[in-house]
Design goal:
With 268 residues, the protein is α/β, with parallel strands linked by helices. The chain is built from four helices and 17 strands. It has helices spanning 29-40, 90-99, 155-165, 222-231; strands at 4-5, 19-26, 43-46, 54-59, 62-69, 80-86, 103-111, 114-120, 126-132, 146-153, 176-181, 184-189, 192-199, 213-218, 235-243, 246-252, 258-264. The strands form two sheets. A nine-stranded mixed beta sheet has the order 1-3-4-5-2-6-9-8-7, covered by helices on one side. Strands 11-12-13-10-14-17-16-15 form an eight-stranded mixed beta sheet. Strand 16 (246-252) and strand 17 form a beta hairpin. The chain is globular and about 45 Å long.
C-alpha cells in the first residue's frame, strides 16, 4: 500500500457549475492506491472517516481525486468514478434535479467541510453535487490530474438537464463557457476544454451500457502509460487512438472501474 501522509494539501477553489471533484468508490481502497499511485504519480493523505476509509490523492501537492471504500458487508458492487459538480446551494440544486425528472439518491447532507448530494440524471448517469471547498477536478497543467470528463448520452437532452440543474446560464463566461463542437456539447473552464456531453451511438444487445461520466487522466506518453497500466493489472477496453481532444486509451482498473488515459492536444 502507498504510504499515507496527514499534511493538508493546497486546495483549488471550486467553480459553480463545473466538475469540481472526482471520487472513486472502490472494493478495496488499498489496492486502488497501489494501482493509481504508481500509474499516475499520486501521493496519498488520510481523509475523513465516512463511514469507510477515504484518502485524498495529490499531484505536486495539489489534491486531484479521492478514493473511498464501503465497510465490508460481503456484498459486491460496481466500482466507479463519480464526478461532483460545484454548486452555490446544494439543496436548491437537488430540488432542480427532482423537478427535471432526475433522482436524488443520497443527501443533501453535511460531510467534511461541505455539503453534498448524489443524484442520477434521467438517462441513468450518476453524478454528485458539492457545496464547499474540497479541491478541484478542473483542468490542471500536470500529468496525473483529470484532463477530460465526458458523458455519452443524448447530448441535447443532457445539456438541458445539467444546464438547468447547474444554472449554467448564470455563470461567468470567463469561468464557464458552453458550446457545440465536434458533435459534442463542450464545457470550457477558464478558457480550457475540460468536459463534454456526447450523443452515444445506439448499442445492440439486451444489456446496453448505462451512461456514466467517464474520467480521463493526463499522461505524457500514451503508449508507455497504457503498458504500465496493463502491467499493474488493468484491462484494455480500447487501444490508444486519436480523438479530437488528443490520444486516448480506455481501460478498466483491477477493480473494474472504467477510466481513460489521455495525451491532450495543445489548444490554440
Amino acid at each position: 500500500m502507498s504510504e499515507l501522509r496527514t499534511a493538508r494539501s493546497p486546495r483549488v477553489p471550486c467553480l459553480p457549475g463545473t466538475p469540481s471533484w472526482i471520487s472513486l468508490l472502490a472494493q478495496d481502497s488499498e489496492l486502488a492506491q497501489d494501482f493509481y499511485g504508481p500509474l499516475l504519480g499520486w501521493s496519498f493523505e488520510a481523509g475523513p472517516e465516512q463511514p469507510g476509509e477515504y484518502v485524498y490523492a495529490s499531484v505536486d501537492g495539489i489534491r486531484v481525486a479521492g478514493i473511498g471504500s464501503l465497510a465490508d458487508t460481503g456484498a459486491r458492487y460496481a466500482s466507479t468514478w463519480t464526478t461532483f459538480f460545484g454548486v452555490r446551494d446544494v439543496d436548491a440544486a437537488a430540488r432542480r434535479v427532482r423537478e427535471r425528472m432526475g433522482t436524488v439518491g443520497v443527501g443533501p447532507m453535511d460531510i467534511h467541510g461541505g455539503r453534498i448530494a448524489l443524484a442520477v440524471d434521467p438517462s441513468g448517469a450518476v453524478f454528485g453535487l458539492w457545496q464547499g471547498r474540497i479541491g478541484s477536478a478542473r483542468r490542471l497543467p500536470m500529468p496525473g490530474a483529470p484532463t477530460w470528463i465526458e458523458l455519452s448520452t443524448d447530448a441535447f437532452a443532457a445539456a438541458l438537464f445539467y444546464g438547468d440543474v447547474l444554472d449554467w446560464a448564470a455563470q461567468d463566461p470567463a469561468h464557464l463557457d458552453v458550446s457545440w463542437e465536434n458533435e459534442r456539447v463542450v464545457l470550457r473552464i477558464e478558457g480550457h476544454k475540460f468536459a463534454a456531453l456526447r450523443t452515444a451511438p445506439r448499442e445492440a444487445g439486451p444489456m446496453p451500457e448505462r451512461p456514466h461520466w467517464h474520467v480521463s487522466f493526463g499522461v505524457t506518453d500514451i503508449q508507455q502509460a497504457t503498458l504500465h497500466a496493463l502491467r499493474l493489472g488493468a484491462t484494455l477496453v480500447e487501444p490508444p487512438t486519436t480523438t479530437p481532444y488528443g490520444e486516448t486509451a480506455s481501460l478498466q482498473d483491477p477493480d473494474g472501474a472504467p477510466f481513460s488515459l489521455t495525451v491532450q492536444l495543445v489548444e490554440n
